[in-house]
Amino acid sequence: MQRWEKGDRTIPDAIAQDLQALEAQAHLIIEEGIATADSDLFVPRTDAAWDTDGMPAAWHRMIAKQIAASTGAKLHYLT
Fold first, then answer.
1. pLDDT (tens digit, 9 = 90+) per residue, 30-73?
2. How far is the CA of 22 from the CAs of 11, 27, 38, 60, 76, in angstroms?
3. Most buried residue, 9, 23, 27, 64, by CB count within 10 Å?
4. pTM for the whole thing?
5. CB atoms inside a 10 Å sphere around CB 37
């Protein structure tokens, strides 16, 4: 991965497509979250605290932080 990030190696097409799909999914979720955000957002602190959609807790925290930055919502971490 570091070689891809540094530009030493080209990202394989299949992986690049998967990354683009994840980025598009994240943008959609963030836009929806901004449009419908409550003043409180509940996010998992660890993977064990959240296992409903197969995405890691870090994914949900990233989404929630971007929504909170746009809306002023307060983050609450689940344990």
1. 999 999 988 999 999 888 877 778 899 999 999 999 999 999 99
2. 15, 9, 24, 13, 24
3. 64
4. 0.81
5. 17
Residue 23 φ then ψ, to 5°? -65, -45
Cα–Cα distance list, 70 to 22, 28, 38, 49 (Å): 20, 14, 12, 25
* Residue type (1 letter), 74: K
Joined tokens for residue 26: 């994240």
Q: Output the pLDDT for position 1.
A: 65
Question: Which two structure tokens, joined as six digits, stand for 57?
Answer: 């807790």
Helix or strand (DSSP H, E) at 77? strand 74-78
CA distance 36 to 54: 23
